[in-house]
Amino acid sequence: MTPTPPGSPGHRAGPSAPGPPSEQLPAQTTPPGPAHGHQQVHGRNHAPGHSHSHGPATPVSRQLRKVIAAVLIPFAAAVIAGLVVLWPGGVPTHGGDGSGVGFDRPTFPARVTALAEVDCEDVRVGQSSSPRAGQSGQAASGKAKGPCRKATVEVTGGKDKGHTFTEVVPPDATRTYATGQQVVAAYAEKAPRELRYSVIDVDRGMPMVLLAGVFALFVVLVGRLRGVLALVGLAVSFGVLTFFILPAILQGSNPLVVAVVGGSAIMLATLYLCHGLSARTSVAVLGTVISLALIGLLGSLFIGWARLTGNTDDQTGLVHGLYPDIEIQGLLLAGVLIGSLGVLDDVTVTQTSAVWELKEADPGAGWRKLYGAAMRIGRDHIASVVNTLVLAYAGAALPLMLLFSIADSSVSTVATSEVVAEEIVRTLVGSIGLVASVPVTTLLAALVVSADRKHRAPPAGVTSRRGNRGNLRKRR
Fold first, then answer.
1. What is the mean pLDDT of the chain?
2. 430: which of 65, 123, 236, 340 fits an S-S bond (Cβ 3.0–4.6 Å)?
């Protein structure tokens, strides 16, 4: 019998120098410790049913890596070039006068120092809208029921630190205050002195930070290293949104181009960061890019065909008023792309991983068999993802849906009104892209993994063993 040469895949380190005879190889036990992850050749010599599918996927061949790189490297270079060309260098000014319109005012921290009940008629609440009530979003109409409350608020930051002003709270106001409560005060420089400060919101910093900390803790405890990398990817996503996408759109760049470049940068950074620099991740990236292109094409077609302007709410109108150069229709399409990106990443990574694992479980399976098996998984994924996307949009537009549910109009009239049609187009276009990503990504993954396993040459040690030990080949 010829012993297994040292250094070959069949060699097993131990106290004796020569390897064991070939007849005894199937009976060998796997040594404990890290070496267990390197026994995939031995695992296929064991009895049927024993699996070594855990651990990292087998790397693809160098030739296939070159083919994938030839596609993705130019794409990544184009994304980097787009970031450089479109980089805004900060949020541009809109040239406003700071008179206090919407979000066009600086804000400062403040604290409620005292509360007192007053007659609503004395502060003109119930007869006409109080200026204070109007500025805080609590305009009253008709006869007020119950006493009003007057809050004394102290500015705790900024150049006017220590300055106090009053805020009238009508009895039917949805926002109430308590003594010692932290609030946010807005400053209007050109307003009369007694009206320059007004409360626009409450300070929610502490609960928001605490909730974010609990979220991060759960992600790290369950995901461990992958969880940490996911949080880093989340930070990258927010960084690209904050420092590139939003300022570039405000600067007047085409929102669609900005969304494509920024979304691609987010996709490349987060996918490779969270899932590693591998052929498996690269296939998921390709599937995501193709699906995003389909969403952009369909979105552009139907937004233009349905003549959707994108200017359907107060926030959009305010942004357009402050920055007239922004293309609102392009902003709508950009929102569709960015909103679909997160779910697309999930679908493409899952499908790619499914194909790779199916190939590891059945190395002899061809691409058609792999595609069929993975698509059975993908169909379940499609059903859940589409429902998730529709419910997410419905939840965001729930107040709007409530308004139209009491409208004296037909269902077709409501559905084709711009404010509802915009959400329908957004949902359906995104869903089409998500559904298309499943077969596209699955097909790419099946072709890549099958072509790689078909043409890869086995390691030298395995060839030698197959040539010298026919009984091992039969066991495979």
1. 75
2. 340
